[in-house]
Amino acid sequence: GYHGEGFGAILLFAACHLPDSSIPRYGYVMENLLRYIVGTLERVVADRYVLVCLSGAAVRGQIPSFGWMKRCYQAMDRRLRKSLQAVIIVHPTWYIKALVTLSRPFLSPTFSGKVRFAASLRELSRLVPVEPAHVPEPV
């Protein structure tokens, strides 16, 4: 995380560390991950925040489903949804771009407007101050 001028917390989420969907009891693991993420957000976020999703170095089986991502958003209380300034997806694959584009009609216009793509870490650094030390080595 980062706290600085004009920014609240900046939370990094690296998809390359997520479990592959082929593991046994994948649904159970992801359900507990959902609870962990929402619980962590409730404890960490006091004000505005940006969620940075690092999708580089992740295989397709590690990218969560649209349904899971939607449940994450719905599990957050109103305060967390209102405090979310942006969701920045770094190194998006065509699959992620297609998933986001196809899901826009089913999402609120407010949330849809918060989703941005960054093709590189350099482009990400123009959007938010992220230190290279916080980015996992595989990314």
Beta percentage is 15-25%
- In total, the number of strands is 4
Low-pLDDT stretches are none
- Given the structure, what is the number of helices? 6
CATH class division: Alpha Beta
Approximate helicity band: 40-55%
- The CATH topology turns out to be Phosphatidylinositol Transfer Protein Sec14p
CATH architecture: 3-Layer(aba) Sandwich
Account of the protein in words:
A four-stranded parallel β-sheet has the order 1-2-3-4. The radius of gyration is 14 Å and the shape is globular. It has a single domain, classed as CRAL-TRIO lipid binding domain (Phosphatidylinositol Transfer Protein Sec14p), CATH 3.40.525. Helix 1 runs parallel beside helix 2. It is an alpha/beta fold and 139 residues long. The protein is 40% helix and 17% strand. This is PRUN2 protein. One of its GO terms (cellular component) is cytoplasm.
